[in-house]
């Protein structure tokens, strides 16, 4: 899933380890989703994080930004949709989402983006709902890998036996 992560989600991730925002950022290396980045968005991330996050020095913030950049798709924006929103920074997110063909924008600021879904077909999702989607995806992949592992260990005599094994794996899954 291709997404754009709003700055407020990154700020929330660095302020608390308990929320969905932190979980979303911490699983970037698993590549369960594909974040999109543009030069203006990276500059905004850097400006806001270095101004608002206390308790982390600039090297820590640079390391986090490098990690985000490493696992993101870099998108060049050739066409500007401005002004679409009252806030130019929201325009920047929309332009990135359109240029990168993102399926969703992850933000706490859902009300300002309400017309985006109807006009452009891009979902606007709060971090907690996106995290639920990712958790379900991880669970399904985990179940699939356990079933595949069982299948390789032994040959099934019938499809009924295979279905029985699949049901038992899904029922006992601890993921």
Describe it for me?
With about 180 residues, this protein is an alpha/beta fold. The protein is about 60% helix and about 10% strand. It has eight helices and five strands. It has helices at about 5-15, 20-25, 40-50, 60-70, 90-100, 115-120, 125-155, 160-170, and strands at about 1-5, 35, 75, 105, 125. A five-stranded parallel beta sheet has the order 3-2-1-4-5, sandwiched between helices. Strand 4, helix 6 and strand 5 (about 125) form a beta-alpha-beta unit. The longest helix is centred in the C-terminal third of the chain and has 27 residues, at about 125-155.
Summarize this structure as a short list of keywords or feature phrases.
175 residues; alpha/beta; 5-stranded parallel beta sheet
Report on the biggest sheet. 5 strands, parallel
Structural class estimated from helices and strands: alpha/beta
Quote the beta fraction.
5-15%
- Gyration radius, rounded: 20 Å
Indicate the topology.
Elements lengths: L1 E4 L1 H9 L4 H7 L7 E4 L1 H14 L5 H13 L2 E2 L13 H12 L4 E3 L7 H7 L2 E3 L1 H27 L5 H13 L4
Parallel strand pairs: 1-2, 1-4, 2-3, 4-5
Helix pairs in contact: 1-2, 2-7, 3-4, 7-8
């Amino acid at each position: 899933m291709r997404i754009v992560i709003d700055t407020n989600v990154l700020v929330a991730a660095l302020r608390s380890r308990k929320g969905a925002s932190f979980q979303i950022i911490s699983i970037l290396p698993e590549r369960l989703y594909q974040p999109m980045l543009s030069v203006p968005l990276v500059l905004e991330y850097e400006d806001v994080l270095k101004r608002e996050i206390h308790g982390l020095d600039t090297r820590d913030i640079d390391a986090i930004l490098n990690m985000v950049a490493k696992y993101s798709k870099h998108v060049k924006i050739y066409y500007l949709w401005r002004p679409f929103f009252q806030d130019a920074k929201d325009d920047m997110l929309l332009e990135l989402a359109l240029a990168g063909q993102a399926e969703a924008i992850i933000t706490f600021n859902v009300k300002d983006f309400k017309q985006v879904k109807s006009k452009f077909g891009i979902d606007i999702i709060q971090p907690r709902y996106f995290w639920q989607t990712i958790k379900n995806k991880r669970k399904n992949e985990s179940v699939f890998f356990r079933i595949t592992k069982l299948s390789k260990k032994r040959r099934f005599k019938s499809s009924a036996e295979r279905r029985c094994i699949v049901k038992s794996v899904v029922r006992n899954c601890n993921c």
